[in-house]
């Protein structure tokens, strides 16, 4: 592991902490530990510690570190949590969560693009997280019923609304974080499922994500774009 990457990672985490994106020690430790440079293609590796999204192929991106940190803080993962992630991408967000929920917790992550799922599996294996993250190819908008219910659910693609299956698969007392809205801009929504099953939704900051394509998402990217003009 290059000492230059380690130095730049430490500098980025320090900056994100000062800006308020990182607020807890467990998120700080995870972002210091997980090597983002090993979750991006080699041709953009030099930009791994710039605070910006990067292309990972198949018209998909890895989120900016500030967004990863912020969404992780909103999700409030705890050691031992069962977490469902919708949109594996390169596997970086899953690795951050796996670092926090270790050693008893686990992350199930769904990716609709088979080639990207394989890329994520390889990244997770070489960084030591494959035993704590299970990558599944499928329609993330339907969740993953075999391991439900989950303590936390995080969605890293924009849906027209919170998919009902995800709310159903969230434990009472659980938290779900997802971007909601059409292309190009959405809002982060935080869904709190109270112990009695009642749902409370809080709208957070404005974000930019690729669309969640699926049965409970957008039919295709064109529909997601058209949705912007209907709002």
Structure write-up:
- The chain is of the alpha/beta class and 231 residues long.
- The protein has one domain (3-230): 3-Layer(aba) Sandwich (Rossmann fold).
- The protein contains seven helices and nine strands.
- A seven-stranded mixed sheet has the order 5-4-3-6-7-8-9. Strands 1-2 form a two-stranded antiparallel sheet.
- The radius of gyration is 16 Å and the shape is globular.
- The model has no long low-confidence stretch (mean pLDDT 95).
In quaternary terms, these chains amount to single chain
CA distance, first residue to last residue = 47 Å
Within the CATH hierarchy, at the fold level, what is the topology?
Answer: Rossmann fold
Tell me the number of strands. Answer: 9
Name of the CATH architecture: 3-Layer(aba) Sandwich
At the first level of CATH, the class is Alpha Beta
**Helix/strand structural class:** alpha/beta
CATH H level, superfamily name: Vaccinia Virus protein VP39
Q: What overall form do the CA principal axes indicate?
A: globular
Which residues sit in consecutive blocks of at least 5 with pLDDT less than 50?
none
In order across it, which strands form the biggest sheet?
5-4-3-6-7-8-9
Rg, rounded, reads: 16 Å
**Tally of helical segments:** 7
Overall pLDDT confidence? 95
Helix content: 25-40%
Sheet with the most strands, sense and barrel status: 7 strands, mixed
């Amino acid at each position: 592991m290059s000492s230059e990457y380690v130095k730049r990672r430490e500098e980025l985490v320090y900056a994100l902490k000062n800006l308020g994106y990182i607020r807890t020690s467990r998120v700080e430790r995870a972002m210091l530990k997980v090597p983002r440079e090993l979750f991006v293609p080699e041709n953009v590796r030099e930009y791994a510690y710039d605070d910006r999204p990067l292309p990972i192929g198949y018209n998909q991106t890895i989120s900016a570190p500030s967004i990863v940190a912020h969404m992780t803080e909103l999700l409030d993962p705890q050691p031992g949590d069962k977490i469902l992630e919708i949109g594996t991408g390169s596997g970086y967000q899953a690795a951050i969560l796996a670092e926090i929920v270790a050693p008893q917790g686990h992350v199930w992550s769904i990716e609709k693009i088979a080639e990207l799922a394989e890329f994520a599996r390889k990244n997770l294996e070489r960084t030591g997280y494959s035993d704590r993250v299970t990558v599944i190819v499928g329609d993330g908008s339907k969740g993953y019923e075999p391991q439900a219910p989950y303590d936390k659910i995080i969605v890293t693609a924009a849906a027209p609304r919170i998919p009902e299956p995800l709310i159903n698969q969230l434990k009472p007392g659980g938290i779900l974080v997802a971007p909601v809205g059409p292309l190009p801009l959405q809002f982060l929504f935080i869904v709190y499922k109270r112990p009695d099953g009642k749902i409370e939704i809080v709208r957070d900051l404005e974000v930019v994500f690729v669309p969640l394509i699926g049965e409970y998402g957008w039919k295709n990217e064109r529909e997601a774009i058209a949705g912007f003009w209907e709002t």
